[in-house]
Design a protein that fits this description.
The structure is a homodimer. Chain A is an alpha+beta fold. In chain A, 31% of the residues lie in helices and 24% in strands. Chain A has two domains: 21-278, 4-Layer Sandwich (L-amino peptidase D-ALA esterase/amidase); 286-404, ArgJ beta chain, C-terminal domain (Ubiquitin-like (UB roll)), CATH 3.10.20.340. A six-stranded mixed beta sheet of chain A has the order 13-12-11-14-10-15. In chain A, strands 3-9-8-7-6 form a five-stranded mixed beta sheet, with helices on both faces.
Chain lengths: 409, 409
């Protein structure tokens, strides 16, 4: 397995303390040796929580746990382990979530249902939760307001760099902060959310308002990305609001007061989602696909995803080959309304095909130059209607095969 | 690009003459240098024809041509070129098909609409049909009853071995022969048919009966295979019946008389379809996926295809890693009814997961041994209903990246 950092990596931003959050990581020895693999965050009393999860029919036990726990809308702790996904582990998996939540609840002084859980790693192996619960007291005793980078690193699996983002927004006259981290690299084809992402804000937001802004933000970020079309069984995005900021009361339905917050959150989620794609297994290029002129926004997105998930398009990009014929084929297979004879395709802003045929004598030189760079832009115009969508993916390289041909070994 | 023959290759069967068919291949210099790339088959007067094509919304010009020409139900010639797919070529593409058919019709002495066309290769480049029509007279003059292997080789693109199959069947008291060849390696995710496949029989069959048996045969063969989830713009399967065999009259609706023929054709098509998978770009293992216990046959097939198209499952197989957790994830993402807690998974006949959890203490040794072999069998039982399906795919290896990262160069 390659261990070099993705050439598309971005630096970790400065992660300052956020009122109401203390966190940290420890090496619990769940699977990995010599690295942290267990993360705990303790949240101030009164913290509300929202969550969006995988739509997999085979979700992990922690996803089941969170779905049930979320009904209360309150959270006091978050426990995340890396190395074992606790998926497809039957009754033992449910027992592991119960034991983990109980142990954390006891340390924090809350109900087990106020503990959110997430696990990531190998599927189908029973989580050795005794190691997890044994490590929790030491981890809890060492929690600090500065544990953000440690937490971002502690949840990594095949990730080659830690991923975090920060934004600020105004609610009324007060400034609030939104800060989060995530992990993800392979098995990325979100169908609600992707892999694990934890976002915290000091804003004071009722759980229903929190849930609404999160759902909308995820739809336009994580749900518009794919590495390999393989939706994870563990996809989880949680948003915690500690309520420590002083601002006017926000009603349950959010409303116009949250306009700035919504935009900042959306921006942060897209930043994090693109960091996951930048760390897509084996990725050497970040690819943006804009589809316009579709019969609807949904149709545009399905066409865009067909292009984004096409192994032939992705390998052509890896080979820096402006093989737009493969984009035509991917549009054609999407099953959405498309008319070959009105279809136009551009790479790097150069329209190479227009109205169903190659643009005679188009200049391939700037396209070739564009494809050599780290970011590739593809535009598809169907010229049928006003539906549009943008999605992101990465190229498909030898690195993906290296990483995934020997993941368990 | 690797040029070594697939380790899964099978030998070309003995291809004897078939009454009513003369064929051959020639180097027309359409794209490749130093190899044949143009195939012509001349068919006896009275030959009927049936066809099944891609459901791509961006079909190639030859697919448009054949769809229209098929309405007559008669064929006297087949012209196939490799190296250029004549797809997304606008008016120039339609002109190329017209000119090619006219040239062949003149040589054979038939109407242009009795000439079937197919092209395979790069998308989006105008077919230099003058080279094709210039080469046709020499090719026509050299047609023989023994040109089968030459034809099977002349249609290859990234294929590493020629693909053909022969079967016999009884219609009434007469024995008829069915013999065909095909090509395909990448861009294989049939949604009606796959890539190019041409089958010939000396049986005397009305076009409607021919179409019905072909459609049914393709559904259970080519349409149950995938290499890379990328449906081709050129998928074409044509079945020609020269009518040279002496047997009782077959009615337009086929009927029970064709039972044996149907079975033999289905068997031949599956043979050819699996040869394409055996030559899947970079393939080192042939993978069979059986799904049982689904709520319907359609649901079973969608689950099976989700497993077959999962890059993570395919790379695990390449790595000879019995990572059944990725099979769970693929079942989960299919969007079909599935209950994690009744799901069972076997590899090589060994049930590793049953009823939602790993089988305690199952013996991994025979599974590891099985995965080292050239053919891998995966079984998924959903335990919900009686729907079942079988599909085939191959593993995803470095060879796929090698081949597709530099196809045009």
């Amino acid at each position: 397995m390659t261990s070099s950092v993705s050439p598309l990596a971005v630096d970790l931003p400065t992660l300052a303390p956020l009122a109401g959050v203390r966190l940290g990581a420890i090496a619990a020895g769940i699977r990995y040796q010599g690295r942290t693999d267990l993360v705990l965050a303790e949240l101030a009393p009164g913290t509300t929580v929202a969550g969006v999860f995988t739509r997999s029919k085979c979700p992990g036990a922690p996803v089941d746990w969170c779905r049930a726990a979320l009904k209360g809308g309150r959270a006091r702790a978050l426990v995340v382990n890396a190395g074992n996904a606790n998926v497809f582990t039957g009754r033992a998996g449910a027992e592991a979530t119960k034991a983990s939540a109980a142990a954390a609840a006891k340390l924090v002084g809350c109900k087990p249902r106020e503990v959110m859980l997430a696990s990531t790693g190998v599927i189908g192996e029973v989580l050795p939760h005794d190691r997890l619960t044994a490590a929790l007291p030491g981890l809890h005793a060492a929690l600090t307001k500065d544990g953000w980078e440690a937490a971002a690193r502690g949840i990594m699996t095949t990730d080659t760099f830690p991923k975090a983002a920060v934004r600020t927004a105004r609610i009324g006259n007060a400034e609030v902060t939104i800060q989060g981290f995530c992990k993800g690299s392979g098995m990325i084809a979100p169908d609600m959310a992707t892999m694990l992402c934890f976002v915290f804000t000091d804003a004071k937001l009722p759980a229903p308002a929190l849930q609404a802004v999160l759902r909308k933000g995820v739809a336009a970020s994580f749900n518009c990305t794919t590495v390999d079309s393989d939706t994870s069984t563990s996809d989880t995005v949680l948003l915690f609001a500690t309520g420590q900021a002083k601002h006017k009361h926000v009603p349950a339905d959010g409303g116009p007061m949250l306009r700035g917050f919504r935009a900042a959150l959306a921006d942060l989620l897209l930043d994090l989602a693109l960091q996951v794609i930048r760390d897509g297994e084996g990725a050497k290029k970040l690819v943006r696909i804009d589809v316009t002129g579709a019969v609807s926004a949904g149709s545009a997105k399905r066409v865009a995803m067909a292009v984004a998930n096409s192994p032939l398009v992705k390998t052509a990009i890896a080979g820096e080959d402006a093989n737009w014929g493969r984009i035509v084929a991917a549009v054609g297979k999407a099953g959405e309304p498309a008319d070959r004879d009105t279809l136009s395709i551009a790479i790097g802003g150069v329209w190479m095909a227009r109205d169903g045929a190659v643009v005679p004598g188009y200049d391939e030189a700037p396209v070739v130059e564009h494809m050599k760079g780290p970011e590739v832009r593809i535009a598809v115009d169907l010229a049928l209607g006003h539906g549009r969508a943008t999605v992101w993916t990465c190229d498909l390289t030898h690195g993906y095969i290296d990483i995934n041909g020997s993941y368990r070994s």
